What does this fold into?
Amino acid sequence: MDSEHYFTTKPTSKSDAREIAVNLRGKDYRFTTEAGVFSRSRVDPGTRLLIDALPLPAQGRMLDLGCGYGPVGIVAARERPGLEVIMVDINQRAVEFARINAGLNGVSEVDIRQGEDFAVVPERDFALIATNPPIRAGKRVIYPLLSKAMDHLLPNGTLYVVIRTKQGAGSLERHLITTYSRVETIAKGGGYRVFAAHT
It folds into this structure.
Protein backbone atom coordinates (compact mmCIF):
# COMPACT_ATOMS: atom_id res chain seq x y z
CA MET A 1 0.00 0.00 0.00
CA ASP A 2 1.25 3.49 -0.73
CA SER A 3 1.98 6.02 1.99
CA GLU A 4 -1.39 7.73 1.67
CA HIS A 5 -3.80 6.74 4.43
CA TYR A 6 -7.00 5.04 3.29
CA PHE A 7 -8.88 7.22 5.78
CA THR A 8 -7.96 10.33 3.77
CA THR A 9 -11.01 12.27 2.58
CA LYS A 10 -9.77 12.80 -0.98
CA PRO A 11 -7.07 10.32 -2.03
CA THR A 12 -4.63 11.73 -4.56
CA SER A 13 -2.84 8.51 -5.49
CA LYS A 14 -2.85 7.65 -9.19
CA SER A 15 -5.86 5.68 -10.37
CA ASP A 16 -5.28 1.93 -10.64
CA ALA A 17 -8.67 0.21 -10.67
CA ARG A 18 -8.83 -3.58 -10.57
CA GLU A 19 -11.45 -6.24 -10.01
CA ILE A 20 -11.25 -9.00 -7.42
CA ALA A 21 -13.44 -12.09 -7.06
CA VAL A 22 -14.17 -13.61 -3.66
CA ASN A 23 -16.54 -16.10 -2.03
CA LEU A 24 -18.12 -14.76 1.17
CA ARG A 25 -20.62 -16.68 3.29
CA GLY A 26 -20.96 -19.22 0.49
CA LYS A 27 -21.72 -16.75 -2.31
CA ASP A 28 -19.54 -15.32 -5.07
CA TYR A 29 -18.87 -11.57 -5.20
CA ARG A 30 -16.99 -9.22 -7.49
CA PHE A 31 -15.52 -5.99 -6.23
CA THR A 32 -13.84 -3.23 -8.22
CA THR A 33 -11.16 -1.62 -6.08
CA GLU A 34 -8.88 1.35 -6.50
CA ALA A 35 -5.66 2.90 -5.28
CA GLY A 36 -6.12 4.87 -2.07
CA VAL A 37 -8.72 2.54 -0.57
CA PHE A 38 -8.23 -0.04 2.17
CA SER A 39 -7.02 -3.52 1.16
CA ARG A 40 -7.62 -3.05 -2.56
CA SER A 41 -5.94 -6.31 -3.65
CA ARG A 42 -8.17 -8.62 -1.58
CA VAL A 43 -10.83 -8.70 1.12
CA ASP A 44 -8.47 -8.64 4.08
CA PRO A 45 -8.60 -11.46 6.66
CA GLY A 46 -10.05 -9.22 9.38
CA THR A 47 -12.93 -8.06 7.21
CA ARG A 48 -13.58 -11.63 6.08
CA LEU A 49 -13.68 -12.83 9.70
CA LEU A 50 -16.08 -10.01 10.58
CA ILE A 51 -18.37 -10.88 7.65
CA ASP A 52 -18.39 -14.56 8.58
CA ALA A 53 -19.14 -13.82 12.25
CA LEU A 54 -21.97 -11.30 11.82
CA PRO A 55 -25.38 -12.56 12.97
CA LEU A 56 -27.59 -10.72 10.50
CA PRO A 57 -31.20 -10.05 11.49
CA ALA A 58 -33.91 -10.42 8.85
CA GLN A 59 -35.13 -6.86 9.47
CA GLY A 60 -34.10 -3.64 11.17
CA ARG A 61 -31.30 -1.24 10.42
CA MET A 62 -27.55 -1.89 10.13
CA LEU A 63 -24.61 0.48 9.83
CA ASP A 64 -21.38 -0.47 8.06
CA LEU A 65 -19.05 2.10 9.62
CA GLY A 66 -15.95 2.74 7.50
CA CYS A 67 -17.31 0.67 4.64
CA GLY A 68 -14.35 0.99 2.27
CA TYR A 69 -15.29 -0.37 -1.14
CA GLY A 70 -18.24 -2.13 0.45
CA PRO A 71 -17.85 -5.87 1.20
CA VAL A 72 -19.47 -5.92 4.67
CA GLY A 73 -22.56 -3.89 3.84
CA ILE A 74 -23.03 -5.42 0.39
CA VAL A 75 -22.89 -8.98 1.75
CA ALA A 76 -25.38 -8.04 4.48
CA ALA A 77 -27.78 -6.36 2.05
CA ARG A 78 -27.64 -9.23 -0.43
CA GLU A 79 -28.14 -11.90 2.23
CA ARG A 80 -30.91 -10.04 4.11
CA PRO A 81 -33.08 -8.07 1.64
CA GLY A 82 -35.34 -6.96 4.50
CA LEU A 83 -32.45 -5.38 6.41
CA GLU A 84 -31.96 -1.63 5.88
CA VAL A 85 -28.22 -1.19 5.33
CA ILE A 86 -26.47 2.17 5.63
CA MET A 87 -22.79 2.40 4.67
CA VAL A 88 -20.49 5.31 5.42
CA ASP A 89 -16.85 6.17 4.79
CA ILE A 90 -14.75 9.32 4.98
CA ASN A 91 -12.91 8.36 1.78
CA GLN A 92 -14.66 9.74 -1.30
CA ARG A 93 -13.01 7.22 -3.60
CA ALA A 94 -14.06 4.32 -1.37
CA VAL A 95 -17.67 5.54 -1.38
CA GLU A 96 -17.62 5.84 -5.16
CA PHE A 97 -16.49 2.24 -5.51
CA ALA A 98 -18.86 0.97 -2.83
CA ARG A 99 -21.68 2.32 -5.00
CA ILE A 100 -20.20 0.67 -8.09
CA ASN A 101 -19.82 -2.62 -6.22
CA ALA A 102 -23.36 -2.57 -4.90
CA GLY A 103 -24.51 -2.50 -8.52
CA LEU A 104 -22.00 -5.15 -9.58
CA ASN A 105 -23.44 -7.53 -7.00
CA GLY A 106 -27.11 -6.83 -7.65
CA VAL A 107 -27.66 -4.83 -4.48
CA SER A 108 -29.81 -1.74 -5.01
CA GLU A 109 -31.38 -1.09 -1.61
CA VAL A 110 -28.37 0.32 0.23
CA ASP A 111 -27.76 3.87 1.43
CA ILE A 112 -24.08 4.78 0.91
CA ARG A 113 -22.90 8.08 2.38
CA GLN A 114 -19.62 9.98 2.32
CA GLY A 115 -18.58 11.72 5.52
CA GLU A 116 -16.58 11.47 8.71
CA ASP A 117 -17.82 8.83 11.13
CA PHE A 118 -21.27 9.69 12.53
CA ALA A 119 -21.40 13.22 11.06
CA VAL A 120 -23.67 11.95 8.26
CA VAL A 121 -25.48 9.36 10.39
CA PRO A 122 -28.27 11.01 12.45
CA GLU A 123 -30.09 7.69 12.94
CA ARG A 124 -30.04 6.28 16.46
CA ASP A 125 -31.94 3.04 15.98
CA PHE A 126 -29.44 0.58 14.58
CA ALA A 127 -29.82 -3.07 15.51
CA LEU A 128 -26.14 -3.51 14.74
CA ILE A 129 -23.09 -1.53 13.76
CA ALA A 130 -20.17 -3.35 12.13
CA THR A 131 -16.68 -1.92 11.72
CA ASN A 132 -13.11 -2.76 10.85
CA PRO A 133 -11.73 0.49 12.29
CA PRO A 134 -8.64 2.28 10.94
CA ILE A 135 -6.27 1.27 13.75
CA ARG A 136 -3.50 3.36 12.16
CA ALA A 137 -5.51 6.44 13.12
CA GLY A 138 -4.65 5.70 16.77
CA LYS A 139 -6.55 5.12 20.01
CA ARG A 140 -7.39 8.80 20.44
CA VAL A 141 -9.46 8.59 17.25
CA ILE A 142 -10.77 5.02 17.42
CA TYR A 143 -11.81 4.73 21.06
CA PRO A 144 -14.12 7.79 21.11
CA LEU A 145 -15.61 6.63 17.80
CA LEU A 146 -16.49 3.22 19.20
CA SER A 147 -17.93 4.78 22.35
CA LYS A 148 -20.03 7.14 20.22
CA ALA A 149 -21.51 4.14 18.42
CA MET A 150 -23.41 3.36 21.64
CA ASP A 151 -25.58 6.44 21.08
CA HIS A 152 -26.67 5.16 17.67
CA LEU A 153 -27.72 1.67 18.74
CA LEU A 154 -31.09 0.44 19.94
CA PRO A 155 -31.31 -0.59 23.61
CA ASN A 156 -30.72 -4.20 22.57
CA GLY A 157 -28.25 -3.34 19.80
CA THR A 158 -24.71 -4.59 19.25
CA LEU A 159 -21.45 -3.13 17.97
CA TYR A 160 -19.25 -5.63 16.13
CA VAL A 161 -15.56 -4.73 15.88
CA VAL A 162 -12.69 -6.66 14.32
CA ILE A 163 -9.10 -5.98 15.31
CA ARG A 164 -5.75 -7.63 14.77
CA THR A 165 -4.83 -9.31 18.04
CA LYS A 166 -1.30 -7.87 18.04
CA GLN A 167 -2.57 -4.34 17.40
CA GLY A 168 -4.19 -3.91 20.79
CA ALA A 169 -7.13 -6.29 21.03
CA GLY A 170 -6.73 -6.59 24.79
CA SER A 171 -6.75 -2.86 25.44
CA LEU A 172 -9.65 -2.36 23.03
CA GLU A 173 -11.67 -4.99 24.88
CA ARG A 174 -11.00 -3.23 28.18
CA HIS A 175 -12.11 0.07 26.67
CA LEU A 176 -15.34 -1.42 25.29
CA ILE A 177 -16.15 -2.85 28.71
CA THR A 178 -16.13 0.69 30.15
CA THR A 179 -18.92 1.73 27.73
CA TYR A 180 -21.01 -1.33 26.93
CA SER A 181 -22.98 -3.60 29.23
CA ARG A 182 -21.43 -6.80 27.93
CA VAL A 183 -18.49 -7.54 25.63
CA GLU A 184 -17.67 -10.94 24.19
CA THR A 185 -15.30 -12.41 21.62
CA ILE A 186 -17.43 -14.10 18.96
CA ALA A 187 -14.69 -15.09 16.48
CA LYS A 188 -10.93 -15.61 16.33
CA GLY A 189 -8.71 -16.52 13.42
CA GLY A 190 -5.71 -15.48 11.37
CA GLY A 191 -4.45 -13.22 14.13
CA TYR A 192 -7.75 -11.31 14.43
CA ARG A 193 -10.57 -11.14 16.94
CA VAL A 194 -14.17 -10.02 16.55
CA PHE A 195 -15.79 -8.40 19.57
CA ALA A 196 -19.54 -8.06 20.12
CA ALA A 197 -20.26 -5.11 22.42
CA HIS A 198 -23.87 -5.10 23.61
CA THR A 199 -25.77 -2.03 24.78
Summary: The chain is about 25% helix and 35% strand. The helical segments are 45-53, 71-79, 92-104, 139-148, 169-179. Strands lie at 18-24, 27-33, 60-65, 83-89, 110-114, 126-131, 153-164, 182-189, 192-198.
